[in-house]
Fold this sequence. Notes:
The chain has helices spanning about 10-15, 20-30, 50-70; strands at about 5-10, 35, 45. By secondary structure, it is an alpha+beta fold. Strands 1-3-2 form a three-stranded antiparallel sheet.
Amino acid sequence: MTKLDSYLTIKEAAEYLGVSPNTLRNxxxxxxxxxxxxxxxxxxxxxxxxxxxxxxxxxxxxxTTSRNHKAK
Length: 72
């Protein structure tokens, strides 16, 4: 069973990613970042491991884009 300390609130997750909470809400709604709901109060929660995977995906994308620009 996963403990709640494996999750961040919308505010904490937004700070972790360096974006606004509204941006993160949109990304969660659009399934760009996996979002979970607290079963008691319905608040949005984000797994730290999911956020790390998202950041790694962005990093990989940036490296690919950077290489493509250098090749032109």
